[in-house]
Structure formats: C-alpha cells, structure tokens
Task: inverse folding
C-alpha cells in the first residue's frame, strides 16, 4: 500500500524525465527485496582464501548486517546483536563492512567474532551493497535457509521478535 501511494503520488511527478530515475530504482529495489522474496546470493573469499557462496552455506537462518567502523549507530547496536547471535547455533551471521580503509575495519571487526566478515571497500558502490539496496547503516536482513527474506530489522529488539 505504501509503495502504491508513493507510486501514484510521487513517482509519476518526479520521474517524468529520463534523467531522474533514482526514485524509480529505489522503489523497484524495495519491491524486489520485499519480505517473502528471495534475497540476492553473493560470494566472498574466506580467511583461508577459499571462495564461499551464501547459497551453499548450511544454516537455518542468516543475518546479513551492513555496517561501518565509522558508524556511531553501528557501534551502539552491533555489540548486543553479536552477543545475542552468539547464543544461536541455527544462525549464520555475515557482516558487510562499508569501510574504505582496512585498518579501522580490522580493529572494529575484532569486537564482533560471531560474524563472518566481508569488507565492501567500495562502500555504497559495492555489488552486494547495491544488490541489497542498502542506503543506511546499520541495515540487517534476516533470511531463512532458502535465502527467503524473513525480515528487515534495525536493532536487537526487532531481531529478537523475528526469532
């Protein structure tokens, strides 16, 4: 209903020219990433230099977190989320760090050992970040074992409600 309201009341007025497609792309991303839809698959290189793929992991649930070592809101939320997820054997946690500089990211990620860490050095232009239409941090997606989007949460309270 919200997307329909935006589409009817705003999109047609703002996206009349071919030059202004940002709103249209964002609305399409919200639709593509709606709860109940399949999440984008992605790959990364693990600490041993081996290529890993999300779809080939074996967990009942996945929490994909987008964060940055420079992000105050992330610093406020991630410690409690890390501690909560450490108690759950059925969840694989993946943290995508929106950090250009490796050094602060390396220091910060050490505080969150429950997560598998991936650095998105391109920040907002990274393919995973773009595929998940991340516009702010922290952003958390909860996926089931088939990579279906179960929830999008902002904090520990919302994450606990999912489980």
Result:
């Amino acid at each position: 209903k919200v997307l329909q309201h935006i589409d009817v009341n705003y999109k047609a007025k703002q996206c009349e020219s071919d030059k202004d497609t940002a709103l249209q792309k964002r609305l399409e991303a919200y639709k593509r990433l709606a709860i109940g839809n399949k999440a984008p698959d992605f790959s990364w290189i693990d600490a041993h230099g081996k290529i890993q793929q999300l779809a080939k992991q074996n967990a009942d649930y996945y929490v994909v977190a987008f964060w940055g070592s420079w992000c105050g809101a992330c610093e406020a939320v991630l410690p409690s989320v890390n501690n909560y997820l450490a108690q759950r054997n059925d969840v694989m946690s993946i943290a995508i760090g929106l950090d250009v500089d490796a050094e602060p990211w390396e220091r910060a990620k050490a505080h969150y050992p429950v997560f598998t860490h991936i650095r998105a050095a391109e920040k907002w232009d990274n393919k995973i970040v773009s595929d998940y239409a991340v516009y702010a941090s922290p952003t958390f997606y909860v996926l089931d074992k088939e990579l279906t989007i179960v929830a999008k949460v902002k904090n520990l309270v919302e994450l606990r409600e999912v489980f």
Observations:
- The radius of gyration is 17 Å.
- Residues 145 and 157 are 22 Å apart (CA to CA).
